Amino acid sequence: MKLRFLALACSPRKNGNTAVLAGQALAAAESAGCSTELLHLADYRYAPCRACDGCFPTGRCVLQDDAGLIYEKILAADRLILAAPVFFMGICAQAKMLIDRAQQFWAAKYILKKEVIPGIKNRPARRGIFISCGGTTMPGVFDGSVQVVKAFFKMLEIELSATLCYAGVDKAGDILQKAGALEEVAETARKLCIP
Ligand SMILES: Cc1cc2nc3c(=O)[nH]c(=O)nc-3n(C[C@H](O)[C@H](O)[C@H](O)COP(=O)(O)O)c2cc1C
């Protein structure tokens, strides 16, 4: 069976740098025979977590919006490419809002002692990569985002195989001038095609 790649392009700029890199990763995966799907979070509507604890009794979020659909796809994927820019020294709000909605899986795992990923034992090990761009070259500019992504991937039982972060990339399209970036992303995605 083909490995299923899902890329989440989290930037509100659908033609932005991180979206270009997400597309590059998927193109490489598709060439290597994997199935791929790209979602732009900008096309979806979802609310932030309300901390209502409504997920505690069931392990399911009580909010009815597009986050449910996105999470169905995340749970089904074998490979996750999370591509999100730095906004104010952290991961962009579009990504963070979605990530916080994973509280339902925290409830399932730690309160209800349930399996988070359906049938995980009979599936390929889940792996993924985090891709980011920041406009500046400030020290530590990606640190906050990487901490968030580590916690998110762990919650969803995805091994974080690589973090590919490009500093000094600001205007949409700047990533095309960043030496080696496209190749590095493609090569990393190809490595994820090995089950
Ligand atoms: C609201 C906002 C906040 C930003 N904050 C930072 C920042 O703290 N540090 C930084 O290096 N770049 C910052 N940037 C620049 C973006 O990270 C940069 O333009 C990046 O290439 C955007 O990726 P995208 O094209 O995929 O949207 C910010 C941009 C926006 C719109």
Automatic annotation (TrEMBL):
Protein origin, superkingdom: Bacteria
Keyword presence, Cytoplasm: no
GO molecular function: oxidoreductase activity
Keyword terms, alphabetized: Flavoprotein, FMN
InterPro entries the record matches: Flavoprotein-like_sf, FMN_Rdtase-like_dom, ISF_SsuE-like
Stretches assigned to the NADPH-dependent FMN reductase-like domain: 4-112
Gene3D superfamilies: 3.40.50.360
Coiled-coil annotated residue ranges, if any: none
Protein name: Flavodoxin family protein
Species name: Desulfofundulus thermobenzoicus
